[in-house]
Amino acid sequence: MESPSSTEVPALEMPAGRHAGVPWAELRETVTQHGAVIVRGLEPRQRGDAVELCQSLPVPLMAEREPFAPRDRHAEGVYSSSKWPPDQPMCMHHEVSYALEFPALLIFLCVTAPATGGATAVADSPSVLAALPRDLVERFERDGWMLERTYNGDVGVSVAEAFGTSDRGAVEAYCRANAIDFEWRPDGVLRTRQLRPAVVRHPVTGARCWFNQIAFLNEWTMAAEVRTYLVDLYGAESLPFTTRFGDGTPIPEEVVTTINGVYDEHTVSHRWRAGDVMIVDNIRTSHSTQPYTGDREIVVAMAEPVRQADFAGPLATPSI
């Protein structure tokens, strides 16, 4: 992705049978340069082949924490794509950008391509940042963004799925160690709030990147009927998740619309072919999934764990 006007993700063709000899240094450099790259010739047509390929690469894999949608775990750091309604788009986001530790690199491997649709789209974060209204960026840079979650148990993942345990003490210890404020309501429901930077500098290139899930996890990105249903069911202050300005102020619908509109202007789509591999710089590049029909199986590896503290300034822990 050399410019926002690009219409395709750069592709590299590799000789068949290079599974055991992937030129990783070359691929990694290309991903840093372009933000994402398609690799053809590796041909992981079975789930086991995809998992084996991920494990063979000279890159550390990491376990996911604090997910929003359930996944199947195939191996340490290797998962199914998020379980999401196939008729609903998954909007632009950076994987786990609300956590203190997240993958710098994502590897997507297409085992089964959908009948129609289902493209994984990407957008260049420095370009998105440059196109957003300056006053909006300045506010988010100054105050950060806030994620609120209420683990009601009916929508999204459970406490055990999010934290890897249902033990209250262990959950609380995780929250304290990861700058997450929390409270247990009298009915036993967990509510959390975490403050994170909206803009970071890329750890390799130094480029300023719009790196967050402000729009994706905001209530106004939901379909109108879904938001209305959830507000009626839980109340406006206890939605399964939403985002706010860093000072706790609600984010207006028009701000979310503006952010998503800028993403749309910088979106580059890739329609999957079985055997394709896409490697994405998770800091430089956001990604999304388009609606689809038919079967679709994408294996996802989360790699190169990094911590926000290594290249983003600290923000105070919010208080519920």
- Overall shape: it is globular
- Known CATH architecture of one domain: 4-Layer Sandwich
- Total number of β-strand segments? 19
Q: Give the low-confidence spans.
A: 1-6
Instruction: Look at the helices and sheets and give the structural class.
Output: alpha+beta
Amino-to-carboxy terminus distance: 41 Å
Secondary structure: helix percent: 10-25%
Mean pLDDT: 91
Biggest beta sheet attributes: 7 strands, mixed
Radius of gyration: 19 Å
The CATH class of one domain, by name, is Alpha Beta
Kindly identify the CATH topology of one domain.
Double-stranded beta-helix
* Fourth-tier CATH superfamily name of one domain: Clavaminate synthase-like
Proportion of residues in β-strands: 25-35%
How many individual helices?
A: 8
Q: Write the element-wise H/E pattern from the N-terminal end onward.
A: EHEHEEEEEEHHEHHEEEEHEHEEEEE
Query: Looking across the biggest beta sheet, what order are the strands in?
Result: 1-2-16-6-19-4-3
What is the strand and helix layout of this fold?
Blueprint lengths: L10 E3 L10 H11 L1 E5 L6 H10 L16 E3 L2 E3 L9 E4 L7 E12 L3 E2 L2 E5 H7 L2 H10 L1 E7 L7 H5 L4 H10 L2 E5 L5 E7 L2 E3 L6 E3 L13 H11 L6 E5 L7 H13 L1 E4 L6 E5 L3 E5 L2 E2 L3 E11 L13
Parallel strand pairs: 1-2
Antiparallel strand pairs: 2-16, 3-4, 4-19, 5-17, 6-16, 6-19, 7-18, 8-15, 8-17, 9-11, 9-14, 10-11, 12-13
